[in-house]
Design goal:
The structure holds two protein chains of two kinds.
Chain A lengths: L2 H19 L3 H21 L3 H25 L16 H21 L15 H10 L2 H22 L7
Helix pairs in contact in A: 1-2, 2-3
Chain B lengths: L2 H22 L3 H25 L7 H31 L13
Classes of the chains: A mainly alpha, B mainly alpha.
Chain lengths: ~170, ~100
């Protein structure tokens, strides 16, 4: 528990709360980007450089931009300041989330502390990761590639303009 | 306090925030954002357990996080395409006004 972790964790929690509660959707997307950046900083702090940079590339570079595009493409006209942003009966959802957090936090706090002291910082190189991906994890890698291709084609087909019957 | 506990508690808090957002927001895009937050908290758990786990040289947590990021990207693309298709049909992106699956 050092100062850097506390600062980054506070930034992540505050920006995630803002992303879930703000009224303007573009502000929500920007706060979500801050959350992703904080998570990438935590990954870098945990010595997982490749995952941190992949987080920056995929989430900040692709998913956040995709969400901004979707927000701009689905502007509805009823952006009146009094339109509800939460669905009716939202207290039930908040209660479920609080219950889930209390259960998980209780399980974490009562679990026995292992000898998880700070190990020697073994920096894993990209070469090792690539070696592992090409040897042990080559079948999941191919399946993920196939999944990404299918998802891309499927997204284009779903979002295509439906043909009007004359 | 163990540093691993800090990361796990942060991930639990992030998961709960995402769950609350996915359950309560009206806009379908924000529901998807909540799901993304939940996936990210799971990734943080993987990396934290890898870093403070017994065998960090096995790279299990890193591999799982990489594949999880790839699958989350595919999920976001398909989900946003569905939202755009629904918006084109119903002229709204609010989940409580889309009440029938048959157009």
């Amino acid at each position: 528990m050092d100062a850097a972790f506390v600062i980054i964790a506070g930034l992540i929690v505050i920006s995630a709360l803002a992303a879930m509660t703000l009224r303007n959707l573009v502000h929500c997307a920007l706060c979500l980007t801050v959350t992703f950046a904080g998570l990438a900083a935590l990954y870098l702090k945990l010595n997982a450089q490749f995952v941190g940079l992949a987080q920056i590339l995929v989430y900040i570079g692709a998913v956040a931009i995709l969400i901004v595009f979707a927000i701009l493409l689905t502007r509805s006209d009823d952006q009146t300041p009094r339109a509800a942003i939460f669905s009716p009966g939202c207290w039930l959802g908040v209660a479920i989330a609080v219950a889930a957090f209390s259960v998980i936090a209780g399980a974490i706090c009562t679990s026995p502390t292992s000898n998880a002291k700070s190990l020697s910082p073994s920096s894993v190189t990209v070469r090792e990761i690539g070696d592992k991906l090409m040897r042990d994890y080559v079948l999941p890698l191919e399946i993920v590639g196939l999944l990404l291709t299918a998802a891309m084609i499927g997204a284009v087909v779903i979002a295509m303009q439906e043909r009007r019957k004359p | 306090m163990n540093p691993l506990h800090g990361y796990l508690l942060l991930a639990a808090l992030l998961f709960s925030i995402g769950l609350a957002g996915a359950l309560t927001r009206r806009n379908a895009i924000l529901v998807l954002v909540g799901i993304e937050l939940m996936i990210n908290s799971a990734n943080l758990n993987f990396i934290a357990f890898w870093r403070y786990g017994p065998k960090p040289e096995a790279l299990g947590g890193i591999m799982f996080a990489i594949f999880s990021i790839g699958i989350a990207a595919a999920e976001a693309a398909v989900g946003l395409a569905l939202i755009i298709a629904i918006y084109r049909h119903y002229k709204t992106a609010n989940v409580d006004q889309v009440s029938s699956m048959k157009g």
